[in-house]
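Two proteins were folded this term; both appear here.
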Amino acid sequence: MPNGEYLRYVALGDSQTEGLGDGDDEVGLRGFADRLAEHLAAADPEVRYANLAVRGRLAGQVRAEQLEPALALRPDLATVVAGVNDLLRPRFDAAEVAGHLEEMFAALTATGARVATVTFPDVGKIAPLARPLRSRVFEFNAHLRAAAARQGVAVADAAREAVATDPRLWTSDRLHASPLGHARIAAAFAEAVRLPGSDGSWTLPLPPRALPTAAQAAAAELRWVAGFLGPWLGRRLRGRSSGDGRAAKRPELLPVR
């Protein structure tokens, strides 16, 4: 498809695609998918956009719940982002999780849609207490890149860029991108699918910042444990998910505005 001729964009995924960290449930969530849709609509106001993502979903749930509705919408462009929630579970199989994504890649590309995905940055550089998960992230990214290559899927390879671990691109929970982070992810996708006006500026470092003292860093870790890790573990022990009872925020193709 010629550059920029994407009139039907469908986003599949979990909380990152839903837009957590960029707005809230009171004022509404924006997120990288909304921002990418806005980029598309700036070139052509006829663009229609659907977002099927639901927070808390595992990759297999994204495939089971969102793939068929996405196919029914006949997208020209689709983004598929999932796997972080799987990474956090005690039992994690990188090949199995990537396999769910590859099934979605294959089904969507078979319809002629342009498909794109994104790799995950080094979590140990974002949340020091999460360093034990680094090997999982690296293994999953390797499987994800291989699956994308087999299916002709574009990859916004954020994991290779140092700026992706800048704390200013992440919210205080260190799992969801901040508004600035979502803007960078959207720009990365725009470059990956070669949208007009896109470039590699999303990889540029942010201005220098004052580094926290050791005491400040330690206090931040304690706040993270109390504010995010503790509640997350509590939900797991109760068999709950942040996405329980939630549906896709934008299940139909609608004008971007």
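Next, the second protein.
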Amino acid sequence: MNTSWRSASLVASAVAVLALTTACGQESGGSTGSQNVGATAPAGTGGITTGGVGSGGYGGVGTGVGAGTSPSTGTGDGGTQAQGGAGELAVATNAELGKIVTDSSGRTLYRFDSDTAEPPKSNCNDACATTWPPVDAADVSAGDGIDKSILGEVTRADGKKQLTVDGWPAYYYAKDANPGDTTGQNVGNKWFALAPDGKKAKSGGSGASEVSDQAGLSTRNDPKLGEIVVDKNGMTVYRFLKDKAWPKPVSNCKGDCLAKWPIVAPVDFKDTKNIPEKGYMKFTRPDNNEEQQTLNCSPIYTFINDKEPGDTNGQGVGGTWFAVRPDGKLVGAPAQ
């Protein structure tokens, strides 16, 4: 009886390992968006206090205070405080950006490219939410130029309600010190002031989103690195040497690390170009319950110090971060 039980146990273990191997190496149907759907109801914000965040570097990069370049680094000024709630939303005209949404005190509202609007979901948590305080969904009203029907709310990972504009979660930027400031515009090539229709305000005064034909994930030929993967904004995609892909994806970039290396949110496989389907999958991070995209089962990220499409400032950082080939392999990493 003991022999039979042990044999059965070994067979069951082998089947379990095989299932994990298949899940992380098969030709998958790609990735879908989050299922965290927020209600659509009038929404707004209460008072928000943000504190400066200072942290040591991770992977050789510090979050130097006052950098103002990260979607989730410290404010560097000890924090800013919004007095009262958002109140009546308004439309302001910015000479550079055109029409943008502000709260009743004139503070600019922003949206984040790594979020989703259909369904609404915020992917800015923890340190990120300190630099980009969510606009609380309470007691907001629509002023002139704001269509109240596109105002809603989404439930965040911490259970709090956040304002949405046409489905996009709305944020403040902690480094906007004065009414009318738009210093959060285009930070990390992922943060943009909200236009009244919920689209991204763009430089040039259009106040509307620019439509790009670029796929959610694709490739480009870098003169030094060769063919590497880029996201929908043309920003270089990276892998972390300390992550794991087998038997299932594991990210070892957590906390302050994510402030410098934002995750690549799930991208439907049909919205990719030149990316192999094998091992193309998403997984849910256990540290914050966010979903992250993989290439060949390995978690992928962008780098906050890449300012423009084509930048590869993250290559080789700390000897652990490297650009990625379409098959998920690291570019220029030491032999393992």
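The mean pLDDT is 77. Helices lie at 2-23, 127-131, 256-260. These notes refer to the second protein only.
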